[in-house]
Every structure is written in C-alpha cells, then in structure tokens.
Amino acid sequence: MKTMPGSAAASAFAAMYLKDKVLVEDAFNHLTAGALETLDDKLFREYNCISATENGSRDECHLILAKACIRRIAHRYLDKYACLQSSKEVVEDALQFYMLPMDLQEHLSSKYGGPLPTTWYESLDQLKSSSTVDDAYDCGKLWRLLLDHPMTSYVPVQCQSCGHVVPDQYPTKQSDAEVGLREIAPTGDELELRAGWFRGPRKAVVFELTCPGCNACSKWYRSGHPRILLNPNKWGRLCGDQEDLRLTLAEYLNIPVRLAVPLDWDHVWSEYSNASSTWQVQDNSARNFCCRLDEGIGSWTGVWAIHPNPDWCEDMTQDYLTIQQNGGRADNNIDDKTMERYRQITKEARLDKSGDLTQAKTVNGYVLTRANLSHGSITVELQRAARDYFGTKKWWELNDDNKDYI
Question: What is the pTM of this model?
Fold first, then answer.
C-alpha cells in the first residue's frame, strides 16, 4: 500500500538505510558529490515505490536528505559527548599519570609562577590558584587560561624521538608511504581507539611512523581517553583531540562548553558560557574563523553549535561572518568589504554541487542550500536531533513535519 508524499520520503529514507546501512553511513561520514549522487538515485527509487504519486517529487527527497545530513552530523558529535563521560577518578588519574618533561616543568613555572609542576594535576592547581578570587576560582578566567595552556594545546603528529612532523594535508601531496607512515593492526591494548581525520578520513587504526629524519619508529592513534590525550611526550593531539580533552576537562571543572562545528571543513573548536550566560570564543583563530577562507585551501559552508542540551544547539553561520560590534563573533578589525567577500566565498561554496570549492571536498552545505533550508530551519532540526538522540529515534528516523520550520 502506497503512502502520501508527506511521509513517503521519510519512509523511503528509512527503507534505504535498512537495506544498505553501510553504504548510507559511509556516504554521510564523508559526503562527496559522488556519494550524494548515489544517495539521490537510491532514495528516489525507494520514494517512487512508496509514494502515492507515480512520479515522485525530487524536492521531497532533497528535503529529507538535508534533514538526514543535519541529524547525522549532530548525532556524530553527540556520540563524541557520550563517549567522553569519564569519571572524576579517571580524569584525575590521567592528570597525575605522567611525569612532565623537565623543560616543560620549567616553562610552566616561569609562565604561571610557583614551584615546578611535576604533573598536569599540579599544573592545573597552578591555574586554579591564578584564577581564585575570594577563596573560589573564577570559572571564566580558569577556562581562558586552560585554553591557552600546553595541557590542551595542538600537537602535530610527529616522530616521538626527534620531533619530525608528519605533514597533515588533504588532499595529500605525498602518500603515507612517502612520509614514512603506514597503518598497522591494533594490538588490543589501545585505550578507546577510534576513527577520525588525519590526512583524510580514517577508520579506527594505529599509525606507525618510520622517521625519515632519524629512522626511529613511533606509534600513534586517535583516542578520546584522557590518559592518551594528556600524554606530554610528543604524542599528537589534533584539533578534534584537543576538543575531546577540553570537553572532558570542562565536565570535570563544571564549566559550560559546547562544540562549534564547521561544515565541509576539517576542524572543531569550543565556545564557553561566561557569567552573563553569553557564549564566548577564546581562541583567536576560531573566533576569526572567517579569515581562514584566505588560506587558499577551500571554503567552509556553515558553523553549527552542538551540545546534548537541545537549547544550546543552533546554526551559528552568520555569527562567524559578523563582527562583534554587530552581534557576531569575529573581531571588529575586519572591515565590511572583507567580511562581504567572506560571505560571498561561503555562498559560492554552498552552491557548488561538486564540492571542489570546500576544504573537505564535501557537499553538506550544498545539500542544505538545495533544500532551501534557512538558518532557523537548520536550528530547529539540530535541536530536534539532540532531543531524539536521548529519546527513541535514531538519526535516520526522520520527521516530515515542517510546521516548526521558519
């Protein structure tokens, strides 16, 4: 029995997912133009099998794929929050696990004062002392100090003997073999081994580097476990790892933090809430993310805030394309002409169905633009996705009700 168009596209998407879960998951994990073409064709065939009409509407399918795109990205990052629920005991064990290298101890003592901190735990105590007012530390000040601290800094993947850095480029200019890198099978001893982006999308693998400089052998892998993330001995901590660690420490310190996720660009950062309950971005590069459009490596197409609290989820694209004196995030020294140019760059990337104009060579922004979704509509779907994540609906179980869209 065929259904009416209002529910046919959602039913068709669910049917497509259940028939070929791996294909659909892989497609949305890295939504290239080719992957989108496959999804379009498969969904439209399913839609015409279910719809009451003999020639179903492509528009219905485009809208459902746009919703699916929003929900899949939201649930992917909500999975990250769920996986980072380390207990206080686990975090404190990680903070005390490593003896910090002597040069790092001396640097921290010189910068923050006090005796040489032998562990990250002692270093965190230094920051608390620096942030204390009337016997209680100022959460905002503590968080700002922590974001600029070596404990949470970016660390490139490198030789753990001499420090030779592995070029992290995408598309890559050299193959893994040419930079001395190869994937090896996990031993089973890894803590929270996970998939992630390094020189392109990767599954949950261990990397072995034979250093072209000193010929030493190093191993590295992506993980969300605080003991791995806090390794101070030349262990790579990429931007996603940085935010995993920051979310873990924010939970440990009871500081409100949410993720900021750019579309079609491999990056992530965090916003924190201050005493006046407004969201702030401490990192200069993240706050002025629009300026990265001048790097010549491609465009992003949007910025979303994602958090388990649905009220904290929203489309922040315009905020990152607006200066602070006009209510945005970017610094006020960016002139109107430059900001308008940035808006045009992102607009053109959203209209590009090939994905060639984006940094990640993906088409998430195009999918949303094709479905004519406004920033308000995207926010509605992000908030719905967060509610459903903790309810009974999976990301691929879609809602056709558009009455909340604006």
Answer: 0.85
